[in-house]
Amino acid sequence: MYRWKETSSMLNEAATLISGAAATFKIQYWGVDECLFENKPHKHSFFEVCYILGGEGEYTDAGKQFPLKAGTHFCSRPGIHHQIRTQDGLSIVFVAFEIDESLSDDSMREAFGKLAEHAEVCLDEGDDHPTALLWKSLLLREDKLSLPTAAISSAAYALLVSFLALFGKDHHEPFIPRKNTNALLQRAKLYIRDNLAEPLHLGHVADYLNVSERHLSRLFSEGIHETYTDFIRSERVRQAAHLLLTSELSMKEIAEVTGFSSVHYFSRTFTEAKKMPPGKFRQQELRRT
Known about the structure:
One of its GO terms (molecular function) is DNA-binding transcription factor activity. By secondary structure, the chain is an alpha+beta fold. It is built from 11 helices and 9 strands. Strand 4 (57-61) and strand 5 (64-68) form a beta hairpin. The radius of gyration is 29 Å and the shape is elongated.
């Protein structure tokens, strides 16, 4: 099902320095082993996090023993002696890493510092945890249903950050949805820009966004300190100026595609905004270029 050796080579070549919005990680190595046998007791100066895909065995961490089976996740912390033992071998994936403190936010440095001190060492029945799904997303598959190379770094970053929720004792932060005011305003602005030739009545756009006219009007006045009508007018003038300089369209054609009801209204509105008629604007700007 998985291309074990190819995945190992790919990760160790393509995912050695992982950066994201809040942290940067230095990868010591990735392990992707279809049949790993036991090792000697040892310790590292970095984290080593493992996920068992198949087989059975035993893990010892600081003298405490934990059973290993498919679905088990375990975390070897920096400076802690640990060992894997198995009779028949384990199908296992693992990553050894450390956070680059100089390139990471305070919150992430603190979170991984706490993880080094107080991690839940071993967790069973973890096949449905987001961490397991992220692990599997990184594995090259024989059926070719694998992530594109461009997505590997982002998936690896998500995997590393997910360890905080998986092993952290106090890092289970609930998602608190924020008001979607910014998203609604952005959708409204995009719709207006894509449909300047249309009348763009307040009620029509409000219906498109499934909000009230009052709410839509307030989005503009509070979000960009501009009325809905003023925003549409400025966008029409902006697009008209662009067409004057980049096309050979007539004044009548530009007025139509930018939503002005007449050439006279277009000329008057454009002159108010740019302090010169559209024809003079075109001549003057083209002369400069």
